[in-house]
Amino acid sequence: IVEDWEDWSKWISCRGGIGVPSVKSWESWWEEEQEHLRHTGFVGRLFEIILSIRFFIYQYGIVYHLNMTTSSRQGIRLSIVVYGLSWLVIGAVLIILKIVSMGRMKFSADFQLMFRLLKLLLFIGCIVTIAMLFYFLNLTVGDIFQSILAFMPTGWALLQISQACRTLVKGIGMWGSVKALARGYEYMMGVLLFAPIAILAWFPFVSEFQTRLLFNQAFSRGLQIQRILAGSKKQA
């Protein structure tokens, strides 16, 4: 499992380029997954954008049922305000991704301390923003989890729309942030897939069950593998 995780980490961290196959680099694989959009006309891209809008409706549905909106007398009006604030949060996340990517290119090689201070300031800013939401808008812990459920599909919709409008996104210089966001989704999916496998690997009965399953036919015939191996060693 450790070797699989290391191979996967190398694959997702490797930068793509000309001549780099998709099995060696996540970026090359990601570019191949968007190959159909390069041969799609305006109508196809428009339908891609329209289909992605459904995630925004899902986002508003979760925002409407947040504790800060349901417990307020203003109702729908406050839910619209919170929905607008959620878009500000999404915009802030994209700007942070852009700042981090620019800081990595400018500071990571020669100014490690400056780059770490930049990430520290961004982290403190996020904590202060969450604290202000708790204080002024009566945000709860449950609202945070619901907001995560709302932001995940919204971010995916933004990825789909950005891929459909690739030329425009590259023109405004946000393609690097889109790529970083897509890589973040892949990291989360990788953790979700590897985490239960790693947890199960810690239990000894799982390994015994796997061995029993692999050599079930040999065990059913009464073969004793250890005696066979011991006999071969004595003959040697």
Automatic annotation (TrEMBL):
Membrane-traversing stretches: 46-66, 78-97, 117-138, 185-205
**Which Gene Ontology cellular-component terms appear in the entry?**
plasma membrane
Residue ranges of coiled coil: none
As one GO molecular function, the record gives:
glucosyltransferase activity
Presence of keyword Transmembrane:
yes
| Alphabetic keyword roster | Membrane, Transmembrane, Transmembrane helix
Which protein, by its recorded name, is this? 1,3-beta-glucan synthase
Q: Which organism is it from?
A: Gossypium harknessii
